[in-house]
Amino acid sequence: MTLKQYDVLVIGAGVTGLYTLYQLRQRGLTVRVLDEAPGVGGTWYWNKYPGCRFDSESPTYSYSFSEELLQEWDWKERYSAQPDTERYLNFVADKFDLRRDIQLSTRVESAIYDSSADHWTVHTDSGEQLRGKFLVTAVGFLSAHYVPEFAGLDSFEGQWCHPGRWPEAGMDLSGKRVGIVGTGATGVQLVAEIAKDLKHLTVFQRTANYCLPLRNAPIDPETMRELKTQYPEIFRICRETPHGFVHEADPRSAMQIPKEERLEFYERLWAEPGFKKFLSNFQDVVVPGPANEDFGEFVRQKIRERVKDPAVAEKLVPKNHPFASKRVPCETGYYEVFNRDNVTLVDVKASPIQRIIPHGIKTADAEYELDVIIFATGYDAVTGALDRMEIRGEHGLTLKEKFKEGPRTFMGLQSVGFPNLFTVNAAGARNHVRVMEPLVDWIVDCIAYVHAGGFGRIAPTQESEDAWTAHVVETGARLLRTQADSWYVGANIPGKPRFLLATPDPAPVGRMQRAAIAADGYRGFAIS
Length: 528
Ligand code: NAP
Description:
The chain has helices spanning about 15-25, 45, 65-70, 80-95, 185-195, 220-240, 260-270, 275-280, 290-305, 310-315, 335, 385, 400, 430-450, 460-475, 505-520; strands at about 5-10, 30-35, 100-105, 110-115, 120-125, 130-135, 160, 175-180, 200-205, 210-215, 330, 345, 355, 360-365, 365-370, 370-375, 390, 420-425, 460, 525. By secondary structure, the protein is α/β, with parallel strands linked by helices. Bound molecules: NADP nicotinamide-adenine-dinucleotide phosphate.
């Protein structure tokens, strides 16, 4: 059988895969992109649940590579909703004629490295095999959806789903008794959006979150015209901030500001949209310590003020983790939902879910009758999507086996024993597009360098991988993101090793490190 041969195979046709394809093509490389979904868009294809939108300011989520695209596309809302973002990605795929190199409805089952020929062979669910000298995984860091193994799920007689696999045809929830398990960013959006249409909503909460008012608004044509002139400045600011957002931190230290002035500052920020409330806050609000606790208490008080029943309010107030140590959800009317007569909040930390029963959910102390259950229970982040494929390197070891104690990589990009495999990992509480573009640019430059130089393979040295892995552990331990149990550290998945699943460095530092490595002839990598 003759295998189809490409310079680069890319897994994933989401935000990252589309950009990777565009840039590889610009370098004259032959590319095939494979995606399980029947449409492009990745996350924005799958997450069709009501209320789904991002928390990055819409213009900052634009691809920056084409001035024409920037001028042609009009964002409709300050924080774009899923249907519009999916439309944007389809618009990009059409405008740049990307579809001819994308194969949809194709799940990659395995990717095996052939050391003798220096290439990867990818096997798909239809039995097809494709060969690529390089393999890029653009599989998303929150794409492997996770439903806990609740006993009795098979016996449930109603409909259930995970928001990351929301049915294409939608779900008719009106007038139904719906249960939502999970109150992360997804659950919070769903709860706020659907509560008013239901006969009854039961929210099963294990950990209360610090949710911030999103303050979304439409973008009128005049404002959009204005924004289009500001793209260079918007992108400049995003390039310089640690997480790729348009919000710059206040250089002052919170606890050195008199209390009254500090609270006034918090109040002013509270009236602002999105993540500005904490990313433009005093710089030490986002590091462990008293400033973080001070602002955390401010947010707790805001929650108490919005919920009428003090007992319900106390359940909704986060108490066991520092502010922003878990990803902070943004919301529109979330807390007011709990003032409605048709909504019940169940604390499943106090009374855990024991099993799913034919007509609902049984906790340790009650049974809840439900027609629909939505498991907004999160994702096996970063490594989950890689683990669900068999990725076998040069010595027969799989990536899953290699990562069983936690990922071991050089800069999250490559791993020893897996030559020519690039994993795009832009994970973190970051503006995905702003952080992903320079990461992919670096990978594409690297691939072009190896290819044009007539080399067969590139992989990190053992020393560089060991040093990077130690850096992630040591530097990561000081970050807010490692102070709670969440997907940031794999702690949301039973049995998964606790390990920071993203770079511990601010985005500009990562970019400088990568640039220096490339300028030094790809220092830390072995090219042969
Ligand atoms: P998540 O943040 O991991 O939240 C999962 C929720 O399910 C948590 O409340 C968790 O409780 C609960 N849960 C998990 N297992 C459970 C069990 N066995 N019993 C009871 N409760 C259980 O997942 P997510 O909400 O899907 O969000 C994931 C990430 O996607 C976000 O952090 C964000 O990065 C991204 N996202 C972004 C947006 C946006 O931009 N607006 C929207 C949605 C998602 P515990 O906290 O106790 O573990």
